[in-house]
């Protein structure tokens, strides 16, 4: 999903974050004026703004921009949506994929909008559990479908690169509403489709 620089970067914010990051480099014992680090504070400032720009996006607005009346009442599944987010506890990335399904109740949305909703909530300081329910709730509240199912599988660098250092650990979270919550056959159909 491409966003313009104006949508992501603010010059004043970039300068302020860069100043703080320059101080962090000094606290780490680095010389922020050495050749390899001179532009690092600004690069980090821009990277952080990019990684968290979802806070300025509205998932419901994204869905409403492409809502259509349609009497289709079978499952709509978008799976293997690439997901890049930032753990709010260590400000380190977690990377994975989301599988999102809904059963329309007279209204559908553009398929790319489902991926954009995932992106919008992922590009924030996050925890995977909240991310999963935010995606579900946004789709449920906006489209009013018969139900929504969301499963996220992700690897957290705060677990793989530091702390417990378990490189192959994958965290799976799920959130269901409506028919996916009440009807085991519908839920199992979704789970079989994402395997």
* Average predicted local confidence, pLDDT: 94
Helix content: 40-55%
Largest sheet: 5 strands, mixed
Class by SSE composition: alpha+beta
Distance separating the two termini:
26 Å
Overall radius of gyration: 19 Å
Write the element-wise H/E pattern from the N-terminal end onward: HHHHEEEEHEHEHEHH
**Total count of helical runs of at least 4 residues:** 9
Residue stretches low in confidence (pLDDT < 50, at least 5 long) are none
| Extended strand count | 7
Outline? elongated
Strand content: 25-35%
| Strand order in the sheet with the most strands | 5-2-3-6-7
Helix/strand layout:
Elements lengths: L4 H4 L2 H17 L12 H12 L7 H6 L2 E3 L6 E12 L4 E12 L3 E3 L1 H12 L2 E2 L1 H16 L3 E10 H4 L10 E8 H4 L1 H11 L1
Helix pairs in contact: 2-3, 5-6
Q: How would you describe what is shown here?
A:
This protein has 195 residues and is α+β, with helices and mostly antiparallel strands. It contains 9 helices and 7 strands; from the N terminus they run H-H-H-H-E-E-E-E-H-E-H-E-H-E-H-H. It has helices spanning 5-8, 11-27, 40-51, 59-64, 111-122, 128-143, 157-160, 179-182, 184-194; strands at residues 67-69, 76-87, 92-103, 107-109, 125-126, 147-156, 171-178. A hairpin with a 4-residue loop joins strand 2 (76-87) and strand 3. Helix 2 crosses helix 3 and helix 5 (111-122) packs antiparallel against helix 6 (128-143).
